Amino acid sequence: KAGVTQTPRYLIKTRGQQVTLSCSPISGHRSVSWYQQTPGQGLQFLFEYFSETQRNKGNFPGRFSGRQFSNSRSEMNVSTLELGDSALYLCASSLSARGGANVLTFGAGSRLTVL
Amino acid sequence: DQQVKQNSPSLSVQEGRISILNCDYTNSMFDYFLWYKKYPAEGPTFLISISSIKDKNEDGRFTVFLNKSAKHLSLHIVPSQPGDSAVYFCAAKRTGTASKLTFGTGTRLQVTL
Questions:
Q1: Which end of chain A offers a freer environment for a tag, N or C, measured as fewer CB atoms within 10 Å?
Q2: Does B41 touch chain A (CB under 8 A)?
Q3: CA distance linking residue B74 with residue B59, whole number of Å
Q4: Does the pLDDT value for residue B37 go beyond 90?
Q5: Using CB atoms, which residue from B6, B49, B103 is nearest to A101?
Q6: Quick one: closest CA in B to A40, which residue?
Q7: Does residue B91 register a pLDDT over 90?
Q8: Is A16 left (phi over 0), alpha (psi -120 to 50) or beta?
Q9: Main-chain dihedrals φ then ψ at residue B106, nearest 5 degrees
Q10: Where does residue A50 fall: left (phi above 0), alpha (psi -120 to 50 degrees), or beta otherwise?
Q11: What does the alpha-carbon distance between residue B113 and residue B108 come to, in Å, rounded to a whole number?
């Protein structure tokens, strides 16, 4: 069973640019969530999509957005990049049980560097 | 406001000994707790979870203990192996929030020979 695939793995952008990251979930998983990991901050929840609808949202500015397609693949977009957006962006998929532990399976991440 | 805290950024343990990783939380609404392990250049992988109605869950070498009154949980690894060297994240969730986990900042475990 293929895992969660994220592309690109590494990218470098400059301030003010925008970036789009892609995530293909495990087959059969309908929920995709995104997390930002920065040194000293752990993983911060960005948002979750289920059946093409945003179901939960974290405390990030509107420059961070996402979407999910009918095949459950998801993209996230960051506009007007700032230096502080440099981070590892992790995508996770799950069967999306609202109750229970609902274990997430993470991809390897997309490492974004903003210069 | 850090609702899940891992106060030890790093821990070094000898091979064969017990590793104890600690985690504290502040939100009494959390009802599931999970531990993830992360190697460099890889995504976090799920290790073990515990429901708030239990105080212990065991899976092989890994045991998680939950003390609800103290809002504290710990992960015990016995015996520790060099391959256990990684960053361990504690995470918590509330029923109904599906994939929204609140993570701690992680503890880097190094298992030495």
A1: N
A2: yes
A3: 14
A4: yes
A5: B49
A6: B105
A7: yes
A8: left
A9: 95, 150
A10: beta
A11: 16
N-term to C-term CA, chain B: 38
pLDDT of residue A1: 62
State the residue for tokens 């952008």: A13
Q: Are A10 and A77 in contact (CB under 8 A)?
A: no
Q: Could you tell me if B7 lies within 8 Å of chain A, comparing CB atoms?
A: no
State the pLDDT confidence band at B96, using cuts at 50, 70 and 90: confident
Q: Do B105 and A109 count as a contact with CB atoms less than 8 A apart? A: no
Distances (CA, A) of B111 to A108, B14, B70: 23, 5, 28
Look up tokens 């707790």; give the residue. B33
Tell me the nearest-neighbour CA distance from A89 into chain B, angstroms.
10
The Cβ-side half-sphere exposure at B66, using a 13 Å CA radius, reads 23
List CB contacts of B60: < 8 A, sequence separation 6 or more. none
Average pLDDT, chain A: 92
Check CB contact under 8 Å for A42 and B103.
yes
Which tens digit of pLDDT belongs to each residue from A49-76?
A: 998 999 889 999 999 999 999 999 999 9
Residue B11 near residue B110, CB atoms below 8 Å: yes
